[in-house]
Design brief:
The protein is an alpha/beta fold and 239 residues long. The chain has 2 domains: 3-131, Rossmann fold (3-Layer(aba) Sandwich), CATH 3.40.50; 159-225, Orthogonal Bundle (Arc Repressor Mutant, subunit A), CATH 1.10.10.10. It has helices at residues 11-24, 36-45, 65-73, 88-96, 109-120, 128-131, 159-170, 173-183, 188-195, 199-213, 218-225, and strands spanning 3-7, 29-33, 51-54, 57-58, 61-62, 79-83, 101-104. It has a 5-stranded parallel sheet with strand order 2-1-3-6-7, with helices on both faces. It has a two-stranded antiparallel ribbon with strand order 4-5. Helix 4 crosses helix 11 (218-225), helix 8 crosses helix 10 (199-213) and helix 9 (188-195) crosses helix 10. It starts with a strand and ends in a 14-residue tail after the last helix. Mean pLDDT is 78; it is low at 136-161 and 231-239.
Length: 239
């Protein structure tokens, strides 16, 4: 039996979510909160809480401030974002802050419930259609500025940038393709299909990518991939 908490200030949306979750996961218990303060109070009062679904536009918390506060106050609590905001940069920042998933409110009901099952099974859910969109690039401020690419990091050399450059240079062509697929939120099964390789081979490539980039999770690898030029011909196009 799962216990979930929906934190959203729109009663009708909360009611719809509670009904959908109850139908899909009949043994689950779904709590409701209309503000971040209520969500924190309810979470602290629960002996077991499997997942908090957090809206980014609560009356006492705007944007990712609520997620930051939850991570500081209740670091043990899995939090997934459930929001109308669909900016790719926001999605990636939320994952970087420790969110276990990002669910756009426009997600079809069946897809949303499938994503919830994936999150409750211990996996991170990434909205592939959003991650396929290009990250906003800022215009160079001077002639020396450059856009990060597969072969170079940002113009100012740093220890982190040097390490990233070294890690990228160690990736094989196939690993670069797998990394691009990861950045679009594809599962191992989808990557195997797209690249015509075995799923076990995908797992081996992912492990090698994490090791070479010096990161500990797929999410960290995806965030690292945002510094790369995913239009490079070595990367396969989105499906």
């Amino acid at each position: 039996m799962y216990t979930l908490l929906v934190a959203d200030d729109h009663p009708m949306f909360r009611e719809a979510m509670v009904g959908a979750i109850a139908a899909a996961l009949p043994d689950s218990r779904v709590l409701e909160a209309a503000s971040l303060a209520q969500a924190i109070a309810q979470a602290e009062a629960q002996e077991e809480l499997d997942l908090l679904l957090l809206d980014l536009a609560l009356p006492d918390s705007e944007g990712l401030a609520g997620l930051r506060r939850l991570r500081e106050t209740l670091p043990w609590l899995p939090v997934a974002i459930l929001s109308a905001e669909q900016s790719r940069d926001i999605v990636l920042e939320a994952l970087g802050l420790g969110a276990v998933g990002y669910l756009p409110k426009s997600t079809p009901r069946d897809d949303l419930l499938a994503a919830l099952r994936q999150i409750l099974a211990g996996q991170v859910y990434l909205p592939a259609d959003i991650l396929r969109r290009p990250t906003a690039r800022h215009a160079p401020t001077d002639a020396a500025s450059t856009t990060p690419s597969l072969r170079t990091t940002a113009s100012a050399p740093t220890a982190h940038g040097d390490a990233l450059s070294d890690g990228i240079s160690q990736l094989t062509a196939k690993q670069l393709q797998v990394l691009a697929c990861l950045s679009r939120g594809e599962s191992n099964k989808a990557i195997a299909r797209d690249l015509a390789i075995a799923e076990t081979t995908v797992k081996s490539h992912v492990s090698a990518i994490l090791r070479k980039l010096g990161v500990n999770s797929r999410v960290q690898a995806i965030l690292t991939a945002q510094t790369l030029d995913l239009d490079d011909p070595r990367f396969p196009p989105p499906r």
